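Ticket #668: bound-state structure for 2-(butylsulfanyl)adenosine.
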Amino acid sequence: MKGAAARAAELRRLLERANYAYYVLDRPEMSDAEYDRLFRELQDLEAAHPELSAPDSPTHRIGAAPASAFRKHRHLVPMLSLANAFNEAELAEWKDRNARLLAEVRTSGYTLEVKIDGAAVSLTYDDAVFVTGATRGNGVVGEDVTANLRTVVDIPLRLQGKGWPKRMEVRGEVYFSKSRFEKVNHERERQGEPAFANPRNAAAGSLRQLDPKITRSRGLRIFCFHVEAPGYKLPVDTQHELLERLTAWGFPVEPHHRLVPDLTAAHAEITKLEALLPTLDYGADGIVVKVNPLRLHAELGTVGDREPRWAIARKFAPEVRVTKLKEIRINVGRTGALNPYAVLEPVEIGGVTVSTATLHNFDLIEAKDIREGDWVEVTRAGEVIPQVLGPVIKKGARRSRPYKPPDRCPVCKSKVEYPADEVMAYCSNVSCPGRILESIVHFAAAMDIRGLGYERVRALLDAKLVKDVADLYELTPMHLLALEGFAEKSAHQLVEAIQASKRQPLSTLLYALGIRHVGAQGAKLLARHFGTMKALRNATAETINRIPGIGEAIAQAVFGFFDEAKNRKLLERLDKLGLNFKEPAATEGRGPLAGKTYVITGTLPSLSRAKAKELIEAAGGHVVDSVSKKTTAVVVGADAGSKLERAKSLGVPVIDEAELLRRAHRKP
Ligand code: IVH
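RESOLUTION: The complex was predicted; output attached.
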């Protein structure tokens, strides 16, 4: 234990020094890879020993990672997980173990509750008012995401009814409805952002947004099922009454819960509920069985600090179906990556008809020896994208030949490249039509050209009106009117939208160009650092690699992009056409803190001084060293000294980090 504490202290010191050298001195002492390795070691250490977590730990502040600015929240009572029972026998064993500890369990009844598959949260209420909301974290310490949870429309901000404990933590599960999830993913794809793998990841990710407006736009919901109120008496005696009381206080409670007298009744009801789960508009990954009297919860206690003895999750094996794999097809992405997928004999899995499933990559097809014509196992376990698990080979069955990854691109017949250090394969032709379609659609979404989706891009390509993104800027309404589906108004609108996109800043254009590994964030860093396309074009891979936040892979890809004659030509054309090749200088004069001056004093809970300064400046404000009457506010952390005194004597407002974050993220 002592060893862990000493190592954590050492890691913090090393990381802090590297951080200081990197951000403040602008003289990196450590490679990104080394920094990441040490950082992860510290994170793991702190996760395993929550008592080692310290307010000054660099794990609280991670530069670009959005979660860096959330405060830690220590739960009043640890947030537990649940043991699983995969069949009736395991459920009976659970009951017998409990009955040996407490005979009463045999006759006390159980509640059955749908187990929502989302992100666990804890909501603190003081005198019936929602004051703090936190993620589960490691169960002991989570992240304070109050501002985000306030955007979850069905969380009560003030309780109704009566009888609530003066202070309590209400536990629940934040989730995406299936329909909402599909909408959000659809929108993300349209915007060229990666789709969420499943509603659970989407819920967790949405909760950890720095900007609560983003969380709000996602449309999260919640179901609540548990209360902790140490030191206070609850106004109910059973779990069943608690669920009813939660409802009366204004919390959403999953409506299919029920009370059963014993396990025999439980089995029958669980069978019914299992059939119900796929029909619900939210993901559910089992049924939670709970001993009904709350008094027995206290007596049964927990196993370690991990799982209560009084509850268990009855899980169902993920649904797997066997069907025939008719054909292996390949889709070419905008980076030229070849994405193999299976065309299946349609099969129903979890209430949805599945006719295609991803095969991920060629290595996987080879490792599992998946062949055309095989019977294969397909699953859709919570994941939205169905996947092929592997072939089911009957003895003596005749199979087709092993699948051979293509040498030639299925769309344009160019050579396929298999980079040694990657699992993905790529079409070598930058002008591959498959790739061009995807890249123009991506370009249009990134440049915010409304009304230019797959269908229209395909039509433009087919009519040979467009071969690359530069051609878009030469389109006139006349061109479009010749195409099906365009009228006078829509043709003008699209041309206007295309022309308007010329003003997008360099960062947006760089992202829109779809350079391999360059996401929206990387493009911003590049544009801010170089300022102009020309400066970036003339940079070496080494110079690019030295930019904080840009790694080797991005540097190589960017350099390679500009090295290619075809790309240089494209850029020349875009330049002539009048696209903006510059990044506006920071946000001075704009942003929510424009014209405001702040002084920072003391140690803030999660932001370093440098980070807080960066945040204020990015929002258009200034940071100065001394307090004067003109100072907008003093941001105060722990151990603040004379500046706080001076602020008070001058009557300058004093705010904390949370308030600063709120102001900096407000819309101007
Ligand atoms: S009871 C002490 N009830 O499942 C309370 N959990 O795998 C223990 N969950 O962390 C949890 N629906 O986030 C409980 N009706 C329900 C639930 C539920 C979803 C989640 C919860 C928990 C996880 C355990």
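RESOLUTION NOTES: Residues 61-68 have pLDDT under 50 and may be disordered.
TICKET STATUS: resolved
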